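Below is just one:
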Amino acid sequence: MSEDKKKRPKIENERPIPEGEASKDENLPEGENQPQETMIALSMEEYDALQKQVEAGDNQAKEYLDSWQRERADFLNYKKRIEKEQEFFRSNVMADLVLKYLDIQDDLERALKSRPPELEGTSWVEGIDFIYHKLLALLEKEGVKQMIPTAEMFDPTLHEAVSQEENPDHPSGQIIEVISPGYQIGDRIIRPARVRVAR
């Protein structure tokens, strides 16, 4: 028995090292018992070919990204256009419907203005007035705004002149009287106010 084996202390339950198995000694340099990485030698032609494949893959990926970004931008523009067209269509339908109700409102307004004095304060007049204000509230809820341009200057984009008259109390172009109010939905005029204008 060698001197080293005699001096080595016995460890309980120590597993015997089979023959042929390399012992891992902590004093060995790091990685000595690790397998070495295999190096592959390439010729310049092979390296150039691989480099071209990588560049071709990069170019194709960039082309796919550009194409996707263009398609996405086209889709967003299409979506905005469809939404705008739908809003325009909805606005037209709403305007046509509101104009029909405005005729009824005008009739109610004229009836209230020409009510006989002896009916003032009766339940019939109060009922008509209630219906009139209920219709106004309904139109307002739908975004319809009434325009009563009293004493404003005439604007052909907002008003319709029924007559032009000489009037010393008003400067030329000022509205003297509103025959029927105008109506708008948002910024869109669905019916101009009908007015008398000073000449």
